[in-house]
Amino acid sequence: MLLNEPGVLEGSHYYFFTPSETIKKYYYHLICCGHYYCNADYHIKRDFFPYFLLVYIRNGELHVNYQEKFVTAKKGDILLLDCREPHHYYGTDGLEFIYIHFDGPHSHELCSYIIKQHGFFFQSKRNIEIGKQLYQMIYTFYHKEDMSISDSTCMIYTMINSLTFKQEKPKDEPSPVDEAITFIKANLDRQITLKEIASYVNLSPYYFSHIFKIETGYAPIEFATKNRIDTAKTLLKTTTISIADIAYQVGYSSSSGFINIFYKKVGFTPSNFRNLSI
């Protein structure tokens, strides 16, 4: 039976799901999924649909208007759309793609963050692995096999996060972010500024901050603070060094400043953390 959408051809298949209230509350879950073969009549134009859409192109071209941008997705490309925003996409003859609409707790926050930081259009060698996972998921239902909610949750979450994985580079070609991380870790015993780190990697502070946060999930100074706190935790649990000396070793000029930031980040004072059973 053909889906009642223009341009969807025979041989296409699709599946719909109605999650329980428990699943809605606690799990990433499918709303619908499918494998479409389409011609040039295929088009979707919506102002709002309350779910996210993940699409992997297997053949042909899918033209997409979204967030005031136009892209043409081809074989091996991936799209992640927040369908709560206006969107319009349409196909060409020979279009073939697999997709899922999904939802779940904090999925909107996560996917919105990914789209903001990385865009909605992904062209990467890693897409092939995501495409294989999508195919496996959809064809589980095609063969009328069961997939547990824990398995489907893990697959959805893994696929979405895989979109953000940094491309591997040759070991002899460190990126500016890699160089900055090395610089930060080598200078944990003193306070360094954003301008100093950016200068070290020969980038403007604004551009450096942007690419650093995309690759690490941290602002540069936030990353430096994280590493100071992590080092302090290790010293607290593995040595008898005084808290004042630990504060000095991780770049704080006063123990009171160190204690305040440690408590803010960890939820324990350094003394309480030292005595805590891990």
Automatic annotation (TrEMBL):
<keyword id="KW-0804">Transcription</keyword>
<keyword id="KW-0805">Transcription regulation</keyword>
<feature type="domain" description="HTH araC/xylS-type">
    <location>
        <begin position="178"/>
        <end position="276"/>
    </location>
</feature>
<dbReference type="GO" id="GO:0003700">
    <property type="term" value="F:DNA-binding transcription factor activity"/>
</dbReference>
<dbReference type="Pfam" id="PF02311">
    <property type="entry name" value="AraC_binding"/>
</dbReference>
<dbReference type="InterPro" id="IPR037923">
    <property type="entry name" value="HTH-like"/>
</dbReference>
<dbReference type="InterPro" id="IPR020449">
    <property type="entry name" value="Tscrpt_reg_AraC-type_HTH"/>
</dbReference>
<dbReference type="InterPro" id="IPR009057">
    <property type="entry name" value="Homeodomain-like_sf"/>
</dbReference>
<dbReference type="InterPro" id="IPR003313">
    <property type="entry name" value="AraC-bd"/>
</dbReference>
<keyword id="KW-0238">DNA-binding</keyword>
<dbReference type="Pfam" id="PF12833">
    <property type="entry name" value="HTH_18"/>
</dbReference>
<dbReference type="GO" id="GO:0043565">
    <property type="term" value="F:sequence-specific DNA binding"/>
</dbReference>
<dbReference type="InterPro" id="IPR018060">
    <property type="entry name" value="HTH_AraC"/>
</dbReference>
<protein>
    <recommendedName>
        <fullName>HTH araC/xylS-type domain-containing protein</fullName>
    </recommendedName>
</protein>
